[in-house]
Structures are given as structure tokens and as C-alpha cells.
Amino acid sequence: MILIPDDIRARLLANGAAERETDHVPVVKLFNPCGAATWIITEMMADGDTLFGLADLGFGCPELGYVSLAEIESVTGPLGLGIERDLSFAPRFPLSVYAEAARRASHITEDERLLAQVAAALGASSRAGPEIPPQGG
């Protein structure tokens, strides 16, 4: 599986090139099918390798930061399985909401109730528009 197809790469690069700091809605979710590691990515830097987003390696302390796409692509787990893209990921909130919900849950979560509570507490609303990837993104 291609982790970052051209359409997603273009949106990540556009977010990374934004001239002002923006709390982007995530573009893609990557995960380890044989483990607990999960990444929710919002941006790619111009080098085409450095990604920004929320990382959860399964130790109970998800964090915002940068990660190398090449390193993620190089991961090989049991039976030769690598990292995969979540084709059903349909983000509705900016990254700050996912980050705070992950802090509260001690892992990246898509629990709608928790995300809505966090969004309300942060004053963030559900976003609809061009930043939300199409189904399968």
C-alpha cells in the first residue's frame, strides 16, 4: 500500500507550506496493524519526508511532533507487515482536539463523544470543507 498517495501528499504539502500557523484538520491516519502505533498527520514539510502530527507509539503518552515518512515506511512487523493507511479515517475536528482527547484517553481515539466534549471545551467546532479528506483518505 502506498502510504501517502499523490492527492494526500499535495494536501499535506499545502498545509506544511501555510504562511501562518494553522490548527489543521488531519489529512491521514497511519497505523501499525500488528501493534499499537498510530499517527494522525496534518502536514508535510517541503523536503517530502518530514511529517507533522499526533504520534502514539502505544506507551500511554501520545504527543505532537515531527516524524520521518521514510522511517515509518521502513517499519516491518511480524509476517512482513508494514505500516498502513486507515482508509476509513474521516476526521471532523482540528488536530488540537485529537491531541487533547488523546491526552485524556492516553491514546489516539476517535470516540465521538470524547472528541465533541474536547471540542466544546476548546471552543473548536466540527469543520466541514476542503481540509477534510474524501472517504478513503
* Helix and strand composition category: alpha+beta
Give the rounded overall mean pLDDT: 91
**How many β-strand runs?**
5
Radius of gyration: 14 Å
Helix content: 25-40%
Strand residue percentage? 15-25%
Biggest sheet strand line-up: 4-3-2-1-5
Secondary-structure blueprint of this entry?
Layout: H1 6-16, E1 28-31, E2 38-44, E3 50-56, E4 63-68, H2 69-74, E5 84-85, H3 95-105, H4 112-122
Antiparallel strand pairs: 1-2, 1-5, 2-3, 3-4
Helix pairs in contact: 3-4
Notable characteristics:
137 residues, alpha+beta, five-stranded antiparallel β-sheet, 5 strands, globular
Question: Can you summarize this structure?
Answer:
With 137 residues, the protein is an alpha+beta fold. Helices cover 28% and strands 19% of the residues. It is built from 4 helices and 5 strands.
Mind explaining what this structure looks like?
There is one protein chain. By secondary structure, the chain is of the alpha+beta class. The chain has one domain (6-122). It contains 4 helices and 5 strands; from the N terminus they run αββββαβαα. It has helices at 6-16, 69-74, 95-105, 112-122; strands at residues 28-31, 38-44, 50-56, 63-68, 84-85. Strands 4-3-2-1-5 form a 5-stranded antiparallel beta sheet. Helix 3 (95-105) packs across helix 4. The longest helix has 11 residues, at 6-16. Residues 128-137 have low confidence and may be disordered.
